[in-house]
Amino acid sequence: MATEFTGTGDPARSMALLWRTPPGGGTRPGPRPSLDVDRIVAAAVQLVDAEGLAAVSMRRVATELGVGAMTLYGHVPGKGELVDLMLDSVLAELYPDEAAVTSGSWRDRLTAVARANWDFFVRHPWALHLATGRPPLGPHLMRKYELELRAVDGFGLPEVQMDLLVTLVNGFVRGTVGGVQEKADAERATGITEDQWWAATEPYVARVFDAERFPTAARVGPVAGEELGAGDPARSFEFGLERLLDGIGALIGDPPTR
Asked: Coiled-coil intervals in this record (predicted)?
């Protein structure tokens, strides 16, 4: 069964591994072993990107690396700690150009934050649910939080509102990008695309739909369906982001110019 949340392992062991703190605070003498935590995490990330979180187990990752499962346990105590390491590892991809989220107008900064997170979760859909659980307080998550706070720093907001804005933007992104994952999950589960499902369902809907009972749906649905098809998460993201930023502008005291 897949681990569905971060923070299910031993917190002390996870923190030591996330920050690469060896037991006793020192380094072991002698040559560096051929297998280490970084190689294990990289193999696990490659596996989960290809096959999803359910495919990841200590035994499967060991097989991918060509070693016995017990060899992995000598580096990572279990899947709970491994999942923490996997999420923090991929978070390193965010904000390669830190200036994009730390300079320019507040609107440019938050737009960069939102789009970077959207792209991140599209690349790693398995990370979407994990990111809503107990966060693995590793170096890459802390860097993410630091840079996102800087995106809203210097605009006269109190510290609590800065934190709340970061949470708001991240929550909006997770909510909209979830539509991408839901469509993919439904396609895998049913074997047909959403467009194919709607095409098969539409004749029956037309037969039973009562336009007098649902007049607003009868008016809006066909127009939206013609333009948006079977749903467009990316369009929802762009539309929602602009409305969200307009609202933040009212909070900051910088109303929209359009």
From this structure: none
